Amino acid sequence: MALHEEIKGQLKEAMKAKDAVRLQVVRSLLTAFMNEMVATGRTPQDLLNDEEVLAVIKRSAKQRKESITQYEAADRPELAEPEKAELAILEEYLPQLMSQDEIRPIAEAKKAELAIEDKTKMGILIGAVMKELGGKADGGDVKAVVESLL
Questions:
Q1: Are residues 77 and 129 both part of a single domain?
Q2: Cα dist from 89 to 14, 37, 58, 93, 108, whole Å
């Protein structure tokens, strides 16, 4: 079953379970999916493929993380808590991200392949590693590994 269909099915489950947070997250995801379909010129009856669905979920998770950071910086923990709950649900849909130890051999191989020896080409190496990993790693982790290599 496609991820888009699976999330649509979870709307009903969240309603039956009276899980307000999950219901809100699923509804916001379905709205984001609809917006993505409109932006790409498709009809509401179409479904996004799994890669597109994951891209939308990653965007939503990133927005939640940024909100949490801003709320905590403003000393507003009561606003950060609901965002954390929503983020936890969003992360259930995302694949497990690679650790820095798993990223290091790939980054070392790319560094050797591109013959990068100094920090002036760090951005090129980060981009190449991110492309190689295809979204399986957090950009901050990739940056940290590349910085440690140079």
A1: no
A2: 12, 23, 12, 7, 34
Q: pLDDT in tens for each of the 150 residues of the chain?
A: 688 899 999 999 999 999 999 999 999 999 999 999 999 888 878 888 888 898 899 999 999 999 999 999 999 999 999 999 999 999 998 888 888 888 888 888 888 888 888 788 888 888 888 888 877 888 888 888 888 887
Measured N-to-C along each axis, helices 50-73 and 3-17 cross at an angle, to the nearest 10 degrees, of 50
Q: What CATH number is attached to the domain comprising 76?
A: 1.10.1510.10
CATH number at residue 140: 1.10.10
Cα dihedral sign, 116-119-124-128: positive
Tell how far CA 102 is from the center of its chain: 18
Which residue segment(s) compose the domain that 86 sits in?
A: 3-93
Q: Tell me which amino acid residue 35 is.
A: N
pTM, 2 dp: 0.74
